Amino acid sequence: MNKTTTSVVLCAALSLGALINPALAADPVTAPAAVPLTLTTTAVSQYMFRGVRLGGLCFQPSVEAALGDGALGVWSSLPLASKVDGVSDPEFDIYGSYSFKLSDAASLVPGFTWYLYPNADEAIGFYQSTFEPSLALNYTLGDFKITPKVYYDLVLSGPTAEVTAAVSLPLKDAGTSLDFAATVGTYKWTDAAAETNPALKNWGDYWQVGVSSPYQVSKDAKLVVGYAYTQGTGNYYKQGTDPKSENSAAVGRGVVTLSYSVSF
Questions:
Q1: Are 208 and 228 in contact (CB under 8 A)?
Q2: Which neighbouring-strand residues pair with 42?
Q3: N or C terminus: which one in the chain shows less Cβ crowding within 10 Å?
């Protein structure tokens, strides 16, 4: 018996029971509450990840489910122009997090991201998937928020550490705000490429500053426009006893973002 048939039979039985015993009508079966979902479609002029350029114009849709103090979602990136061969074409990230409240101002947020690159060619060094647990501390004071965060990629075998500071300036007359954010980070991976012996190391630093402005289109829909400049610095590869070489994909780029999200 499938789910639909079961529901029809159950409802019919309860209706018959209510006719025989009216007291049953006072305690109907309550349908489980729907899980809140947010669908977001985003376009970015450049795809930058930790100071490294992974592509040009990209379409990046996502869906996220709110699970109480937790979240579970899928984010994707589909390159439309200036594709970088073998990198993020396409990319699907499955992620989750849970927020533990420490005080009115602070919360601890463990999480994970499972990066999937189904078309990656491991024979030339690209992984088809990596897995990265993370731990963040959110501290909020009024409109100011600071978030130190650490990650450890179990496949690339290395940590990433970053700090983000954000402040929101309300523009009540315009029905929006200016949301400023700045991030600095560093990472070091000891197994940065698949099928290599000896292992290929990769390390680098990065920073980003940006501003965005959200517009509430309706009760459940929001439009966000933003601009950020991100820069990768001190980024190198090294394999065995060979001298280190500079990562040419670690560059500085301005990124324009336009996203539209709907919650239901």
A1: yes
A2: 259
A3: N
Q: Which pLDDT does position 87 carry in this prediction?
A: 78
Tokens of 57: 């114009």
Distance from C-alpha of 188 to C-alpha of 54, rounded to nearest angstrom: 18
Q: Are residues 123 and 252 in the same domain?
A: yes
User: What's residue 102's pLDDT?
Assistant: 98
Task: Looking at the structure, tell me whether residues 60 and 20 fall in a common domain.
Answer: no
3-state SS class at 22: helix
Are residues 28 and 65 both part of a single domain?
no
Cα separation of 135 and 152, whole Å?
9
Low pLDDT (below 50) residues in the chain: 1-26
Co-location of 16 and 83 in the same domain = no
pLDDT, residue 85, reads 76
pLDDT per residue as tens digits for the range 222-232 = 999 999 999 99
Q: Does residue 244 contact residue 238 with C-beta atoms inside 8 Å?
A: yes
SS3 (DSSP) at 14 = helix
The residue length of the chain stands at 264
Same domain, yes or no, for 52 and 4? no
The range of the structural domain enclosing residue 58 comes to: 34-263
Pair 92, 217 in one domain = yes
pLDDT at 133: 98
| 26 plus 50 within the same structural domain | no
Enter the tokens of residue 79.
Answer: 């390159």
- Determine the distance from the C-alpha atom of residue 261 to the mean position of all C-alpha atoms in its chain, rounded to a whole number: 14
CATH number for the domain that contains residue 232: 2.40.160.40
**pLDDT value, residue 50:** 97
Instruction: Look at the chain and report how many structural domains it folds into.
Output: 2
Find the radius of gyration of the CA atoms of the chain: 23
pLDDT score at 11: 42
Separation CA 211–CA 252 (nearest Å) = 17
